[in-house]
Write a structure and sequence with these properties.
The protein is mainly alpha-helical. The chain has a single domain, classed as Amino acid/polyamine transporter I, CATH 1.20.1740. The protein contains 21 helices and no strands. α5 (47-75) packs parallel to α12 (217-230) and α7 (93-125) runs antiparallel to α16 (308-343). It is globular, with a radius of gyration of 21 Å.
Amino acid sequence: MSTSTMTSATRGTWGSRLAFILAVAGSAIGLGNIWRFPIVTAEGGGGAFVLIYLLCAAFVGLPVMLAEMVVGRAGERNPVGAIKHLGNGTKWRWVGGLGVVTAFIVLSFYSVIAGWTIHYMFSAGVGKFTETLDTDAYFIEMVADPGKEMLYHGIFMIAVILTVAAGIRNGIERTIKVTMPILGVVLLVLLIRSLTLPGAFEGLAYYLTPDFSKVTANTVLQALAQAFFSLSLGMGAIITYGSYLQKDESLPSSAGYVVMLDSAVALLAGCIIFPALVYANLPLDEGGPGLMFQVLPQVLVQLPWAPWGGILFGTIFFLLLAIAAFTSAISLLEVPVSYLVDEKNWKRKKATWFVGGGAFLIGIPSALSLGAVGWLTELSGFEMSLIDLLSGPFMDGALVIGALGLSLFVGWKWGLQRALTEIRQGSPDFKLSAIWAFSIRYVAPIAIVSILTFQLYSIFTPDSSPEESPEEAVIESTDL
């Protein structure tokens, strides 16, 4: 029996290419698509920013995504094992190791934020969002309540653990085939409702009208960073998912479909949010978690058919957020689980509960540092929550460094000819091979270094913006 057959038999494979595409798209489509992309688009020139973003996604995001898929399928292992195998045991395996650690740490605090979406979904369903509700106070009360923080953090993490523990086909694939269509239907329902509100076209005009006068070098770097982070590159999730893919499946078309789905969700999120904000006569420049948990609850109570309109569409909207967070978290957990299964010969259930339980425990200080246990914030030595403190080095730093290492590994160490041979197993007529090779060897590394430089410049440049409110003082850069 060949190594490939043995690996597939013991590790599992996707039942179809559609399942793989939906799983990778689910990993890429996260909270950042909904709470960050619309705002940076409007501020960056609307349609002009969208054009630049799509170019960045096509010439940087897509090539790196394809490279990760190639490494995963060729190596048929987790990120560490795949790179170790393809690189003949070289030290390049640190690239995969960085992805495994990053996925684990990000999962620990991402679960806390995802728990908020579940809490708000239930709150919307029971009619909590009323005209008299102080949404600032409501958010602060939630994060200051250790019982609520632990409850929803735990509910979310257990759901993710149960899914991953069931395996590739019986767990992840079966779940993705249900959640992703639901996400699409929910998105469509909210889009129709938002576009039929009075003032909808005014909101769309603010969002998408091209304004090239706003386009600067900083705009291009923001679009590049948005395209990169939005696709969940650099954390090993796509390598891991690619390792379960059959050899006869087309990698280029799969990567293309994922980029299109991810970009479409991000664009449609703005088409939902801005018409609703105009209708409710609320600020159009509020981004990040504040948009989700402070501004939009005010929109819900003003929707037609109140109070039932707010209850219905509020529940649906936070269901959308919860699903987006859930599908991303599944991929985050799968990365370290696959490492333990492949490299340490652990059983999947044991590895899943060990990693998931560890992420839950590590996430507790992050949850409590937002208000329930204030000394945790002071203990960090910075005037920020532990979520902020962790998101910087792992979201803004580790992901970028990991993607840079992966691009250099494929382009220069493993070799383009070996990578193209793997790609042509499922796409013998891959006509863009020369463009992809040039992109992964030259364009992607230069672009990724530019992102890293941009991130460092943003950190060390004094910010003259007003002091953030409590609901804004959580991760702004998370795009999972």
